[in-house]
């Protein structure tokens, strides 16, 4: 591993308060590699927070298996050049699957305004980078892993796992297993559970819901803090119950309609039968009347 000299790159953002979309800096060189910074004035995945990221430039043109390991930090300055924010130094591995790393919660936009840091509506961003390792080409198996908060995960899982820790920083504070293999296994189970809970509520069967709750309990017992997933599962239960209740009501309404239809048929049959009986009674009555009107024969 060859350490390159640290590099600092500074760029200015004018009319900062008017910006909505991501702002990309000009490309700069550090450690023989090309980089640029992304600034999200309205947040990236987390609303109302300024976010900053370091990105590998033109990574699509790099050779298969490329990697860059670098230490980096961000500094924010006002129009006068006074520093009002400096991040801790980060050290990350950049690759095709994860071409950028950064800080999604630098400062809330409210605090940024309260500090009066953005003088004359101008924000100055300084990026400090020191490249530690450069791999221009390597064999790719698809099984390469990276350490994220103590968990070895596949490159393809890095972004998702990183966001889990951003949104739920205390998720693994009480995680009990120490073995890297066991930790990886449980993280994979957690990712599968999260994917499962993203399905529409109506797609779950009773058995699937029961199994999902069991999986959630098992993961919680290992030390994962998963209140947010429990809330999500509870919502799925309620939504599914609403759907089931609505279906049951619809079934009862249809059954009621069917009963009414049968009742109407019987009424029609009864009316027809009553009419027939009345006709027969009238016929008999008419016959009796005719019979009574016949002249009686006198005896000789």
TrEMBL record:
Origin: domain of life: Eukaryota
Gene3D superfamilies in the cross-refs: Apoptosis, Tumor Necrosis Factor Receptor Associated Protein 2, Chain A
Domain MATH: 6-129
Pfam families named in the record: MATH_2
The UniProt record lists the keyword Translocase: no
InterPro entries with a match to the protein in the record: MATH/TRAF_dom (IPR002083), MCC (IPR050804), TRAF-like (IPR008974)
Residues in coiled coil: 242-269
Record's keyword terms, sorted: Coiled coil
Protein name: MATH domain-containing protein
